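ingest -> validate -> predict -> emit
validate: passed (alphabet ok, no gaps, 337 aa)
predict: started
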Amino acid sequence: MKISICKREDIPALLDFICTHWKKDHVFVTCPDLLRWQHENKDGGLNFMLARDEVSDEILGIYGFIPQSFYDEKIHRISGYNEAWGAIWKVKENCTIPGLGVLLLKQVAREFDFLGGIGLSEDSQQIYKLLRCKLGDMNQYYVLNDSLKKYNIAVVNACLTARKSNERNCGIEKLSVLSGIDLKHAYRPFKTIDYLLNRYMNHPYYEYKFLGCYVADILECILVVRNVSLGDSHCERIVDVYGSLEKIRDLGGALKQYAILENAEYIDFFNWGIDKSYFLNNGFQYLDPDKDEIVIPNYFEPFLQKNVRLNYFYISKFESNLSFFKGDGDQDRPNML
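emit:
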């Protein structure tokens, strides 16, 4: 058995493996251009680690990954760390090599100072637990547009108790140009303005909006937002934060006004790393997926009108300022094209 990076000539075999052993109509199979956009490296191959049989050369297992520097080559030099997110991880069901999936994971992890993943299968969670990786659930927050009489995406069967919020000190403004903005990112894994441009603004299939959050006319952070529609209804989903939320007060209240102006049912926000008290003290509701009567869906391709837990894992040589968002890794990508 041999483990190596996916070369250009290996791509057809990789696609065949995904089709046969992962999902027949997976979006990477039906739209290889998306696969290349998300994983293609400088050599024309893909950021996938492949395990192959020494004799037959058959692919036995795969582990996909996305380095942070994939969207901006300067990130490694500026941050001093090599960081990446895991993607598809799969071993053939009838593989006779014990622990092959773990070998693939370790081969990728040794290349990076940080490796994380969001949205884990049951099988992968068990392996990460055995390896003593850090695991947990992302927190989902939301602000509801309570000016609406009917909801088609959310399920609102109960009257929400209004949360007390800090006095607002922020304003929100749509940003059409990001180039030239002088703002540093406060969280890890590290990001840059060029990262936002290449990861979101230049996305070939999804359209993202950028909301600047200002305090006393100073830009404190940029929210990356995607509009998701279902029939004539839509919601707004914050998938990433660039900068820092620390100085911004009553952000939830400001976003509620934005939701009303946009006629969105709600705005939601997955995060791990920023203290829950920040959101609860600044106008957001916390969604308990097991207890709450209100439903704030996460899956739209296809649509699933239920609350879900979105979990994460990570292996890291550093712990300070870690903060994960839905747009990290490959969670916010098309599943149907």
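The domain at 2-112 is CATH 3.40.630.30 (Aminopeptidase).
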